Amino acid sequence: MQPTENQTAKIFIATPCFGGLVTQEYMESIIACTSIIRIPMTLSLLGDDA
To answer: 46: which of 7, 18, 22, 24 lies 20 to 30 Å off by Cα?
Structure first.
């Protein structure tokens, strides 16, 4: 599929969170990405998943 002018890129990040937890370093890197990458992003933290 070739991108067209009407299509925009979107990023979906799904993160398993064992015991509902993620590391500080991981969350800081995700937050930093939102300020660097000017593409719409969705973050889904999947609690109690491994």
So the answer is: 7
